[in-house]
Amino acid sequence: MPRKHFRKFLPDHATIREHRHLKLFQPLLRHPNLWHLNRHSVAGGVAAGLFAGLIPGPVQMLSGAILAIIFRVNLPVAMVTTWYTNPFTWGPLIVAAYWLGSLFTGETIARAIPPDFDWGGGQWSNYLPELWLWFKNLGETYLIGSVALGLLLAALGYVGVQLAWRLYILAYLRRRKRRAQART
């Protein structure tokens, strides 16, 4: 893949080691796969980010970072990949997770309609408890479906990156071979 293009956006190891806020986490951030752009590390980072993106609430990037550190995959890729969940994609993802969960639990989709989300545009301090109550009312069907959808997306993301990376390398080698033949 065009690693040279992406390398200019990634920090080097010395910058990370010397950052004053990250000194506490220095032992966790030393593994080379957390920062290197190779096929397995990037594919794992995409998988971690896709799984962590389905965690409700504002902790998706933190969850992606934790999963990247645990599985020793590319940390920035895992954190950025969580951005696929946003206000525009949450609705379809919730429906897909509930539908997938209903396949496991046998619950009908008619139960999927939780009580109205009654935030009322009030205080921000009322938003998170109301959101938590809304998700809680979706029940175990949504929870099971969310985990299943996260695992499915992670597996598809991992395989997709591996395949795309491999196809890119094969195309690059073919171009290089044609250039070498054209010179002779």
TrEMBL record:
Specify the superkingdom: Bacteria
Which spans are transmembrane here? 42-71, 83-101, 142-169
Keyword annotations:
Membrane, Transmembrane, Transmembrane helix
Q: Which InterPro entries match?
A: DUF2062
Q: List residues of the DUF2062 domain.
A: 23-169
Coiled coil regions in record: none
Matching Pfam families, A to Z? DUF2062
Q: What is this protein called?
A: DUF2062 domain-containing protein
- Read off the lineage from the record: Bacteria, Pseudomonadati, Pseudomonadota, Betaproteobacteria, Nitrosomonadales
